[in-house]
Structures are given as C-alpha cells and as structure tokens.
Design brief:
Blueprint lengths: L3 H22 L4 H5 L2 H11 L14 E4 L5 H11 L37 H15 L5 E6 L6 H12 L5 E7 L15 H9 L3 E6 L3 H11 L6 E6 L22 H10 L36 E3 H15 L3 E5 L3 H4 L2 H6 L4 E3 L4 H13 L3 E7 L7 H9 L4 E6 L17 H6 L4 E4 L4 H13 L3 E5 L4 E3 L14 E4 L6 E5 L3 H13 L5 E5 L2 E3 L3 H9 L4 E5 L8 H8 L6 E5 L10 H7 L4 H13 L1
Parallel strand pairs: 1-2, 2-3, 3-5, 4-5, 7-8, 7-9, 9-10, 10-12, 11-12, 15-16, 15-18, 18-19
Antiparallel strand pairs: 6-13, 11-17, 14-16
Helix pairs in contact: 1-3, 1-4, 1-9, 3-4, 3-8, 5-6, 5-13, 10-16, 13-14, 17-21
Length: about 600
Amino acid sequence: MVNVRELQKAADVLRRDVILMTSKAGSGHLTSCLSCAEIMSALFFNEMKYDIKNPFQINNDEFILSKGHAAPILYACLNRSGCIKDDLSDLRKSKSRLEGHPMPSLEWVKVATGSLGQGLSVGIGMALAGKLQKRKFRVFVLVGDSEMSEGSNYEAMQLASHYKLDNICLIIDANRLGQRGETMAANNVKIYEQRFKSFGWSSEIIDGHNISEILSSLSNTKSSGKPSAIIAKTLKGKGVSFIEDKDGWHGRVLTKKEMDLALSEIPEVKFPKITIKKPEKGKAKRIEFNKIHSNSYEIGAEVATRFAYGKALAQLAKARKDVIAIDAEVSNSTYSEEVKKQAQEQFIEAYIAEQNMISMALGLSKKGFNVFASTFAAFLTRAHDQIRMASLSNGDFTICGSHAGVSVGEDGPSQMGLEDIALFRSIPNSSIFYPSDALSTEKLVALAAITKGIKYIRTTRPGTPVIYKHNDEFPLGDFKIVRETQKDKVVLIGSGITVFEALKARVMLKQYTIESAVLDLYCIKPFDAKKFIEFVEKHGKKVVIAEDHYPEGGIGEMLTNLVSNTGIIVEKLAIKEIPHSGKKDELLANYNINAEAIMKAAKKLVKG
C-alpha cells in the first residue's frame, strides 16, 4: 500500500498541475478540481486496479467523473499514472484530446460527462454488467454536491439497492459551493448520509482532505454488502488561501500574478514513485451467435409491430447471449417481456425511471452488452438529455418507443408519442427505424443489433396487416416500393401505420383514373436521398407524405429539405394540433392522415 505521505504529495502535484493547466488554457473549473485532489489521489494511486496500458482491460475498475467540469484533475491523474502521454498544457485546445469536459476521444473516458446528474446511472449499468458477467471489477463515481439535486441520481440510488450492487461506490465532493452560491444542503452533509441510508446504501461522512479517512472509508465499502456512498466534506479551492471556500470563483481562472501566488502556497514536490495496482488478467468471453429463427406470420394477418418487436427480440436474445432487454415497467405493453419469459438473466427491469434506464443502457453497452431499452415513445422525451449524452459518449445501443402517434387511440395525448422522430433525428450518429408490419419489424430488430450508434425503433399499438415476406430485405438507409406502375402521377408515402392508409388511398385514386406509387419509409435516418429523388422524378414528381407525428422535425420536413431545388412538390399531412382521445380510425380521420385525406391531397396535386 502507498503511504499517506506519498498520496498527499501526489495530491499536491495534482493541484499544481490543474493550476498550470487552467491558467495556460485561460478557462476551466479550477476550484472544483482543487476540492477533490485528495480523493482523486487516493482513488487513482491506491484504491483502483487498472492496466495503464489497456483502458479496455475487461477487469479494470471503472471511474466516472460525473462532475465533468473537474476534467483537468482527471487528465492530470491519467497523465501521472502513465495512462496517457498527452501534454497537459494543451487543455481545451481545438486539436487536443483534453477537452473542457470529458469526452471519449480520450480512450480512458468511457462516457461523456458534464451534463450533471447522469454519472451514477451509467455506473449502475456498469455495475450490473459486472454482476451479469461475474467479474470483480468495481465502479467508482465522483459527483459534486450541486448535482445531488438532480432527480436521476435518486432513480439510480433506489435501483442500486434493489439489485444489491455492492460493487459500486459513489463519492460526493461536498464542497458547499455551486456555480452561483451555496448548494441546497450547503454544509449540512448529514442530509446526504440520511438519504443514502434511507435508500438502502451504506453511507459515511468523512473529511475529504484527510487521506487516512479516505482510505479507511474506501476500505469499508468493500465489505458493506451494499452500494456505498462516501460523503467527503471538502473546501472548494482547497490549498489556495485567497480562493479557498470563497464564492464567486466557479469557472474562473487565475491571473499570472494570482497563479504565481497560488503555486507558492502549494508544496513543489516530485511526483512519488507509485505502482498502480493491476487487475486480474482476463479477456472478454467469446459469445457464440446462433442462427436467428424467424417467427411465423401469414400475409394479411393483423399483428401489432410492438408485439412483433418483442417476439423478434426474444429470438435475438436466444441466438445472442450478449443481448440484454431493459424496460421501464411497461414490458407487457412493449412486449419486451418475451425476453424475460425465455431468459430471465437477459432482462432487466428498470421500473418507471426512463432517465436512469437510458444511462444504464449506456453503461451496460460500454461493458460489452448489446442493449435494447424500451418504453412508450411519449415517455422518452423526458430522457432527451440522457440520449444526447449517450450519443456524445459514442453510445451503441437500441431504444424502442412503442405506442407512437394518435393511433394509440382512447388513452389520449399524454400517451401519444408525437415528438420522438424529431428528437432522434437531431441526435448525432443515430438511426431511425419505423416498421409497418410484423416482418419488417423482425428484420429491423436484427438490423439494429448490428448497426453502430444510437438506434431508435418506433412501434405502434394497433395491429397492422402483414404485407412482407420472409425473403424481403430491409437495408440500412433504404425504402420499400410497395406499389408502382409505369403511369404513376403521384407518390404516396407512409411510415408505420400510414403505409396502410396510403395503400387504401391508392385504390381510391383509381376511381379518378389517377395511378400512384406507394413507398414505405421504414428507415428515416439514414436515408438514400439520391435513390428517392430518382424514383419520384420517374413517378410524377409529386409526393404526399402522411405521418403520425407532429410536422416539426418529422418525416415530411425531412423530405421537403431533401427535394428542395428539384422541382418535386411535397404535400405534408401530419398532426397539426394537440389531439384528443378517440378510436384509432376516428383520430386518423380527424387529424387528416387517413386514406381519404391522402387521396384528396393527391388528387388536388395531380388535378390542380
């Protein structure tokens, strides 16, 4: 074990590092780094086990800096431990990997942080992965006391004790001061201790600048048998007298004169010779992939895409033991419960806590699982920031939003996902799949499993007729030509439930001697614009798109942008007001996205 004096020297070196780094950069959160120097020293140079040459060693302990604005001290730890060789003076430079907040462009940063309140949920996912993989690595999450106001932390706390995750340790850097003044609890850190204990955690208050207390507390967490919280009472700006425990210094850096004065107060010592503890040797187990068997669906049979999603996911989980289904307590509606029926160990109940579920999915995926997270489409909007941060983290997992659109029916607008396509279209490196029948759902679930990035599958509540065959293919970025002739004067486009309204409208148009093509946009993002434009130009150069979604950020908006300056005319039918409860067919008619509305729009385009 490294002795206390050596760890204190290391903390002093870290303090000097961050003063020099932030002063050179001209920006950064110096005081938030200074308050956690002893904590970081104890973790990185004594407690944690990791292979400094391999950030992806399967048995490495994991560290998540949830208070991402303290990134400089993380970079200093990684540099001093030998994990990275980056020049610390390059902090925040445009071509540097040492960004203002942690990003996975630095391989030791598994997830992006800086949007506060998400690190613990990611850590819960990693800790669950450790339990499922029967590995002994531990997960350490450092949070600030300000972010303990975030509700997602409490979602994570209750689930950690529910699943008895004794392999996770949360440390609160309780330095009293937030961005603009005192935090909610200020110096009353007993509040945090009581909260954690009430959630079934072991909890202890320590002096966060006393190395001996930190080491003792970390040692206690190994035998608690529970998730552990260490409330470290600290001083913001610790070590520099004129900023220590003083308000108004959050995010501020020192002038040259102040920097020199600050450095004179911190002992200038050599970084001690420290040997980082190594984890057990280990490699990820090779997962055997078996053949995925298709479910049996007859042409014309009415099957809800949400039901087909569950069946397809269960088949996928049977074929691939790395597949994990996670659901926000609606698995009997999203049908992800089909996985639970088949393989209980491949299903995780997240309960009604969508923000925590998404960050957990990110954590699980970072430890090697192919994760499918599901809930109602309407409820995903509350997890927008978690989805956004997952994308910044190079997240690779699938989200399924069921019960999308007004076709939900009688449950009313609070249950109708009408903003979800816009949400996922705006997410970098995302793919959006919108199946119309059971077979396309099955194929798109399989496609999601092998596509990188954040994938979104949109499913609907009511049944739809099966129109595709088992040998039909659904490539990424493409669309299906459902009907076409050589005499088409207009192209009718649907996604999901509106595909069938477009097919009905096509029959209606024949009464007016108007031939039309029907396209199924099963993949909204990415999308083959060139192929689409070429098709439409050969089929009348007129388009009617009907979507069960608000127009803003929807499919019609996407198509309009794609065909600008081509001479193609697009008529967009979408939900243009807050909808009401009612029967599915009644609502499709009331909000003008049904067959008759499509027919009238197409007739007007063609006849003028």
